[in-house]
């Protein structure tokens, strides 16, 4: 059904038009020969009915009154407006977007595609922001039968839990706490993206680069611990992994951009030389390995 908004209601007649399923308001209103604009202008909120409204009818009338109160009535011809287009004009493109995305596009996640980080990391973060990575909770939706609790703390294994709410993730955010004064108010990934969107571009890119390194490192460490029987990294090792990923990625940045990125990191983040990072990337999967996206338990 095409959804539209009546912006102008001069000729929208109460006694003719159907407002409640197949019931016309002529069965409710005592005044018939008038437009909705005339009723609102003359009576405002003191509308009279020939019978008492109760239950659902009363609730719908109250909702209608709120809608009318927030609507500017123009004394001109009525106009149909397609609500899924900024200009109010129907097009097959806007209709397709509505049917595909139900009218909602997560534009904040588009910031990820412009970052100077490996392409697979951008894909991973984009999937994460859309809650599409294979967490236990998402596996259950696909028919998997198993325990959905986190192996680290026993809480339900959701997307937000892995990267923000789990004590393992919280301890990392706490390490970054001096730089991220807002981190205690973040309750989900959307909160983080909202915070990033408000930053100036240089700071936003720096913050999101560190965010990518943090989330990717948490994901790999968890998967290595479960699937590869790799000993769980200590907090110092985890922080070192994140720090060196960031340092490796910003190596090609302009000096001013590097300084912006380092401002978002704690003062003691630089723990080993960049040359060591390159060696680890070439010869070891422990720190910067390429294990793919995989699953998360």
Automatic annotation (TrEMBL):
InterPro entries assigned: RVT-Znf
Domain named Reverse transcriptase zinc-binding: residues: 90-173
Name used for this protein in its record: Reverse transcriptase zinc-binding domain-containing protein
Species of provenance: Rhynchospora breviuscula
